[in-house]
């Protein structure tokens, strides 16, 4: 079962979507073909088939249901899952779990009241098969309501075509000075590329160095690390002289490796010894600056449930001591993963399905308390850093003003992309604009919209934003300059306008900005 559980993570599927397949699949030849793609986990291929039918026949319940189900298992615009699922429900889809998937579509789109009502309605269905997960989703909904009410002020910047591709690009780790970035990608290789059963290529580890202030075209780490199987970056030393790797070669899985940079390249990966790797499943790791304290995730016996985070220290002999579970402040009955020890040695970031997660894995921070000799109760990093999707890794710069994550956003190249986050409240050089979009001649706040900000001088997009789904507000933080703002609200006319941000002497910490849009 270790392989199956890791494949859920490798394939980057949202929590609990790999459940029993809807029984309705496979009732015609063309739908049978799509069903076979679903069985293989190739949701991209399945979606193409389902949408080809559903877009021609909005009353085809099976095709619309299949399209929604596929979308929920992909990294793409999840709003489309509502579109197809509502069609399937109107067409009278005959599946005992249909209302569960309707609720899930609402949930991942943060339509929390609709999701809650649908989950509760589904709970009354005596024929449903997903009852065990309902209470968990209701807990996620309560957490998401609370967290999304007070979003953190952040700006997402897509790292562009030198780093991101149409394929999944994820698990980024950056050096504190942002001179080196390493990550995992399932892009096509130059030699020996072969598609796997899910329609993507095997995962490799890639890296990029900065030159003249820009990340250069990403390079494959080479055959010493990458093989014809799946390798993933799961940790890195502070100066990137050692990478921590998960390698899945079917015969040997569930262990962590390392590769040392020597000369001009990374050397052959080596498996950690039995003090770290066990008969159980080890998935991710981080190390202190002095390389004497090592944290990793494992589902070995004796934990608090699922994967837990453990710590071990290096002995005078050079070997690692017996690992210690970090305890109930960090670990829960659910999975914890991807520890990232910040460079101060006091701040531990990690992902967890427990605590007050707003859906699947959320990112948390815990601080070491020297006087109490314990880790503090973890703090959720907030929305939109966390979402109802799985948010697995985060890597901070030295000043903690920026961090690197992977996610799908509207400007993604096609799947998961790597983004640089700016924490706006920590940046004193920018003017903070607290914004909302309203309907013309009313006070109606528009919550479904996409906002792009383009630097007039360079012509480059320097930021993209979306309103908070609950409040409709969003925050822009802009340095002095001239900008072109494009507002694309759903069911309203696109609004374009110029915005000038003055110099430091005219700086305003918070400036209100209201965008007025017209109906189509």
Q: Secondary structure elements and their pairing?
A:
Layout lengths: L1 H9 L18 H12 L2 H12 L6 H12 L6 H12 L7 H11 L3 H12 L7 H18 L5 E5 L10 E6 L5 E6 L18 E8 L2 E2 L3 E2 L9 E7 L5 E7 L7 E7 L2 E2 L3 E2 L10 E6 L5 E6 L9 E6 L10 E2 L10 E6 L5 E6 L9 E8 L4 E2 L3 E2 L14 E2 L5 E6 L9 E7 L7 E9 L9 E7 L5 E5 L7 E6 L2 E9 L5 E7 L8 E8 L3
Helix pairs in contact: 2-3, 2-4, 3-4, 4-5, 4-6, 5-6, 6-7, 7-8
- Helix percentage: 10-25%
Class from helix and strand fractions = alpha+beta
Number of helices: 8
Low-confidence stretches: 1-21, 23-27
Overall form = globular
Question: How would you portray this structure in words?
Answer:
The protein has 520 residues and is an alpha+beta fold. Helices cover 19% and strands 32% of the residues. It is globular, with a radius of gyration of 23 Å.
Question: Quick recap of the structure?
Answer:
By secondary structure, the protein is an alpha+beta fold.
């Amino acid at each position: 079962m270790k392989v199956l559980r890791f494949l859920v993570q490798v394939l980057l599927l949202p929590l609990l979507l790999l459940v029993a397949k809807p029984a309705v699949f496979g009732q015609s030849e063309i739908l049978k073909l799509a069903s076979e793609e679903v069985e293989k986990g190739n949701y991209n291929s399945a979606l193409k088939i389902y949408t080809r039918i559903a877009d021609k026949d909005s009353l085809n319940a099976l095709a619309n249901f299949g399209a929604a189900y596929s979308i929920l298992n992909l990294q793409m615009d999840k709003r489309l899952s509502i579109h197809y699922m509502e069609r399937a429900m109107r067409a009278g889809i005959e599946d005992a779990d249909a209302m569960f998937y309707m609720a899930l579509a609402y949930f991942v789109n943060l339509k929390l009241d609709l999701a809650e009502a649908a989950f509760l309605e589904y709970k009354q269905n005596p024929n449903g098969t997903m009852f065990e997960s309902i209470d968990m989703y209701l807990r996620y909904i309560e957490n998401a309501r609370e967290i999304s009410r007070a979003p953190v002020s952040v700006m997402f910047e897509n790292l562009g075509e030198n780093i991101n591709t149409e394929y999944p690009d994820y698990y980024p780790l950056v050096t504190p000075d942002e001179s080196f970035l390493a990550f995992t990608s399932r892009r096509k290789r130059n030699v020996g590329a072969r598609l796997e059963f899910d329609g993507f290529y095997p995962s490799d580890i890639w890296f990029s160095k900065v030159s003249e202030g820009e990340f250069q075209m990403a390079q494959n780490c080479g055959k010493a690390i990458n093989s014809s199987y799946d390798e993933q970056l799961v940790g890195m030393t502070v100066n990137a002289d050692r990478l921590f790797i998960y390698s899945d070669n079917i015969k040997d899985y569930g262990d962590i490796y390392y590769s040392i940079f020597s000369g001009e390249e990374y050397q052959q990966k080596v498996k950690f010894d039995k003090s770290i790797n066990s008969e159980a499943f080890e998935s991710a790791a981080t190390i202190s600056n002095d390389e004497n304290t090592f944290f990793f995730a494992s589902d070995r016996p004796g934990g608090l449930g699922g994967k837990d985070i453990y710590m071990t220290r290096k002995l005078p002999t050079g070997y690692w001591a017996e690992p210690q579970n970090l305890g109930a402040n960090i670990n829960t009955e659910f999975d914890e993963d991807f520890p990232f020890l910040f460079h101060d040695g006091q701040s531990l970031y990690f992902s967890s399905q427990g605590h007050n997660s707003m859906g699947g894995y959320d990112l948390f921070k815990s601080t070491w308390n020297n006087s109490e000799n314990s880790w503090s109760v973890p703090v959720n990093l907030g929305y939109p850093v966390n979402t109802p999707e799985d948010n697995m890794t985060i890597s901070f710069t030295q000043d903690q003003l920026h961090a690197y994550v992977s996610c799908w956003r509207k400007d993604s190249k096609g799947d998961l992309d790597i983004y640089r986050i700016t924490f706006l409240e920590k940046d004193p050089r920018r003017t903070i604009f607290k914004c909302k979009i309203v309907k013309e001649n009313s006070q109606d706040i528009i919550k479904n919209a996409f906002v792009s900000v383009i630097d007039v001088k360079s012509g480059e997009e320097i930021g993209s934003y979306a309103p908070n789904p609950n409040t409709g507000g969003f925050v822009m933080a802009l340095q002095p300059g001239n900008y072109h703002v494009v507002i694309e609200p759903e069911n309203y006319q696109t609004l374009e306008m110029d915005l000038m941000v003055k110099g430091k002497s005219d700086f305003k910490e918070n400036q209100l900005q209201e965008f007025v849009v017209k109906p189509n």
